[in-house]
Amino acid sequence: MRAARPLASLTLSALLLALFIGIWQLSSLTSGAGDAVVDPEYAALVGAAAASGGQTPFPSPLQVGARILEHLTDPFYVRGTNDQGIGVQLAYSLGRVLTGYGIAALVAIPLGFVIGMSPLLYGALNPFIQVLRPISPLAWMPLALYTIKDSAVSSIFVIFICSIWPMLINTAFGVASVRREWLNVARTLECSTWRTAFRVILPAAAPTIMTGTRISIGIAWLVIVAAEMLVGGTGIGYFVWNQWNNLSLADILTAILVIGLVGMVLDQLLAMATRAVSYQE
Amino acid sequence: MGRAFVSVEGIARRFPSTHGGPPQTVFENVWFGIEEGEFVCLIGHSGCGKTTILNILAGLDRASEGAVVVAGREIDGPSLDRAVIFQSHALLPWLTAGENIAFAVRSRHPGWSRAQVAEECQRWIDLVGLSAAAGKKPAQLSGGMKQRVGIARALSVQPKILLMDEPFSALDALTRGMLQDEVNRIVAETKLTAFMITHDVDEAILLADRILLMTNGPNAKIAEVVVNTLPRPRTRHDVHHLPGYAELRNHILDFLVDRSKRLAETMPSGWDPRRIPEVRPAVPA
After folding, report:
1. Considering its fold, how many domains does chain A have in total?
2. A235 part of a folded domain
């Protein structure tokens, strides 16, 4: 494939976005809600739209844009447990993701290293890993809540359990497939086990390990939203669910956009780290 | 008869058969010696176990039977005293050329300061003419430059024995010739004991004091030892003009083309693996 000029791609991206927003704006103009005659007391109780039996209209891009601006200008307010700024909610989610993910990395990378070095362990643990890996992390949630009895810690545990497998598998695979000739170089230079591990095996396997950490952070960020919807209290997932209960679609759309952007930043950070340790043979 | 500096004593390599039959023998009953300061080449076709023999000498592989004795002690695994120049150069691709050499220097001298290591590296970089390439990663270097780094790395641990596994086979003829001359010069200057595997007849004649001729595998054997009587110092420019060169070269070529196959089936009567016949084709009869 020939590489396209970056400016041309960028222009096309901008055009596609403008087209999408334009169609969205047009369609929100045509679907104006009719004014039905309702009992004013009932309307005051449940809201005009609900009382008339109509649906809350889908917000137009302008409404969503205004809401995004509101959130961005004041992201860190706290007005009670159910009304906190989107920045605060994001911080809760990021804190949980980084805690669970960090613990997973601390367990998975050394353990994967040992498994990769030992064909016996690799063979013995592989069946367990293969069975545990495809389990949806949310399936662990009831068990976590039952044993840990703390919803915040349970969601961290769920992040831990979902992000451990890609790191474990990639580390073990990367370590096990280090080129034999590099190990032979270390052997002829009489390198100690530690020196071989840190100066030869670790840099040789680093790109594969970092790819595993990148896959893991992606999964962790997917799972935190669902986990917080279940557990509630705080976090961007809870924010989405709370705004659904408020039927505030503009807030939900804001949250969706922010979730996407944060996920992209996390992924790009690890992509940069992967590039930093990769080498050309 | 005393033991040679490097004494290979009855080594064999067998692989278990894939379906319950008798084990496959690559080679067996291999005996030869290398004197201190001597340059020995081993020539044979692919599949006769040449690389396995070198790996056993390096300590990277184990013989199924027999032993290798160096300076009176049976070897047990790899050692800094036996450096290897790998066929595929085997540089660590995440380190620069200079760092690859520093890795080896630090292995030999773990207590050295950063400055001492740098100084020693520079010496080897200069010796093999790498000054311009020291800061580059292996992927940015040509095949010849990579193998220069491989040579410098092997020499920088100041080994007693240099083991080379077809070190120049992946290079173009011009680069190969230059590196052959350099290895020849360095080995002569440092009085290293050297063992090289090759299938290049001219390379063997240029470098080796003795050339071991190996029959085809399986059940490969060292059929004959060719003593290279051409006078030293030899260079690429004049070696093929020396009297006796043609006889020497023809003898080895005849072996590779014809006798290596015939002898693999039946060895002449009276052939003793412990006393391999020596021939001197370059000496006029």
Report:
1. 1
2. yes
Distance, first Cα to last Cα, chain B: 28
A9, part of any domain: no
Q: For an interface test with A, give the residue of B87, B94, B140 to mutate (most A CBs within 10 A).
A: B94
Of B77, B92, B137, the CB nearest to A280: B137
With beta carbons under 8 A apart, name residues in chain B contacting A189: 80, 103-104, 107-108, 157
Domain-located, residue A23: no
In a domain, A247, yes or no: yes
Tell me how many residue pairs between chain A and chain B have CB atoms under 8 A apart.
Answer: 55
Whether A279 and B139 lie within 8 Å, measured CB to CB:
yes
Block mean pLDDT (10 aa), chain A, length 281: 81 95 86 58 68 70 89 86 87 95 97 94 94 91 91 93 95 95 96 95 97 96 94 90 90 94 97 94 83
Cross-strand partners of B213: B43, B224
Contact across the interface for B84 and A190, Cβ inside 8 Å = no
d(CA B146, CA B139): 9
List of chain A residues whose C-beta atoms are within 8 Å of the C-beta of residue B139: 279-281
Task: Tell me the residue range of the domain where A146 lies.
Answer: 60-277
pLDDT, tens only, B129-145: 888 889 999 999 999 99
CATH number at residue A92: 1.10.3720.10
Interchain pair B86, A187: CB under 8 A:
no
**Does A190 sit within 8 Å of B60, measured CB to CB?**
no
C-alpha span between A64 and A62 (Å, rounded): 5
**Contact assignment for A184 to B90 by CB distance below 8 Å:** yes
